[in-house]
Amino acid sequence: MDKEESTELIGDLQDKIERLQMNQIKYEMLSELLTESGEPQISTTDPDSRSLLIQGQVVEVCYNTQTAVDDKHKLVVATIRLTGTIATHFQQLHWKQKKI
User: What is the pTM of this model?
Assistant: First the structure.
């Protein structure tokens, strides 16, 4: 390995280190935002979307809300934004609907 190749390798390594340091700063900032928000996750593309387990191990970033409607008057009586497992949220929605 000659001096020119060595200098090129050092330059490449320095670029990689800088890129990794910038990524570390970015992820530290995201971690702080996540802690401050109290949410279980944060989306870097759309603050309203969440990663949801669709089926088995299939995860999609999407929007998911559920609505309970009064059967007699067809009025919305409760809504909930799903951010975790669907089963636990349906239990919460059912409880909200009964309470109203």
Answer: 0.53
